[in-house]
Amino acid sequence: MKILLIAGSNRRNATSALLLRYMADVLQSRGIEAELYNLYEKPVPLYSPDEAPDDGNAASLVRAASEADAFVLGTPEYHGSVSGVLKNALDYLSSNEFGGKAVLSVSSSGGAVGVSSLTQLQAIVRNLHGINSPEWLSLGGNARQFEANGAPSDAGVRQRAIRSLDALVDLAGKLRPDVVRAR
């Protein structure tokens, strides 16, 4: 099984990206192939349906999404919504990449929780014909603290992240059993 984690922030040390990095480490420790695509490190140009940019990062994102069996999408919450950086990246993708695949939505918000961004992200996933995981993960306030090794400081946050990943892996296995077993 291959899971693509897309960190949708334009900040160097975004807590949403730190959380996805931790989640990728958890998946890899379980023998699951996990690729972290950090949009801060690999930005894509503004999407335009009229012009296909000759951009290596955009092509790399589409290729990685095509090869993925499931996704984790991570976003900060800006003004009650997903980041523009993540939305722009998702505009490069379609049902060709997402159709019938499991997707876990993750948010990190400076406020109490990022439920608005998660709700909107799940609507985007539905429009891409992805299948939303029954779990989601929202970090807010003091829950957004990380250790030097990259793990969330709070044991409860680590447990929630693992529970969310377990639900995603379970759903992905049910939706794509032949593809998942073949890898």
CATH superfamily: Flavodoxin domain
Terminal CA distance = 6 Å
Q: State the CATH class.
A: Alpha Beta
Question: Which geometry do the CA atoms define?
Answer: globular
What CATH architecture would you give? 3-Layer(aba) Sandwich
Structural class: alpha/beta
Quantity of strands, as a count = 6
Query: Percent of residues in beta strands?
Result: 15-25%
Please give the largest β-sheet: 6 strands, parallel
The tally of structural domains comes to 1
Question: How big is the Rg?
Answer: 15 Å
What is the arithmetic mean of pLDDT?
Answer: 92
Helix content: 40-55%
Number of helical stretches of at least 4 residues: 7
CATH topology: Rossmann fold
Order of SSEs: EHEHEHHEHEEHH
In the predicted model, the low-confidence regions spanning at least 5 consecutive residues are: none
